[in-house]
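Sequence and structure are kept together here, with a separate record for every protein. A complete record is shown below as an example:
=====
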Amino acid sequence: MEPEVAFGIVLRELRKQRELSQEVLAHESGLERNYISLLELGRNSASIKTLFKLTPVLGVSVSEFMRQVETTLTGAKKSAR
């Protein structure tokens, strides 16, 4: 699994846990809805600036978000073995 895909999985999970639509997340973070969609699909890489825009809306710190991405990547690697 690519890091962008793991990022997208975590982004979608956190967004859904907070019952946010892509549109609301985009509006509250100052991003475009289609960009949120591309991030969730793992088709775009988020910049540090984007990460700092998303995490407050999702209610997590940047470090917690990235820990979850790392956990998702590690889990995928273990499943692939």
